[in-house]
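job 3f2a | input accepted
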Amino acid sequence: MRKRNHVIPVRLNARELRYLDEQAAKSGFPREEYLRTLIMGGEVKAKPCEHHADLLRKTAGLCNNANQLAHVANASGAASQESVREMTRIAREVWQLLKEEW
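job 3f2a | predicted structure (102 res):
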């Protein structure tokens, strides 16, 4: 049995349909999912480009490496606790910004 039993026909002119198709394509959603998201008050963002996943992976690796270096430097006494905290804070901030923006 279908979860969505109600069909609502909507008439659009050529310009409106073209705009709907463009926006749905940008989001990466099919038309129906795009419209349902908008109806439910969701924010529809453009689908990230192909290279963004690679960028996120590389940034995550960078953050992990920085964190490992910070732990080693802290254990050997080659870095102050404050510099380690600052490096970790920057890594987390960069990671969070990339996750939110891309």
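job 3f2a | The two ends are 37 Å apart (CA to CA).
job 3f2a | closed
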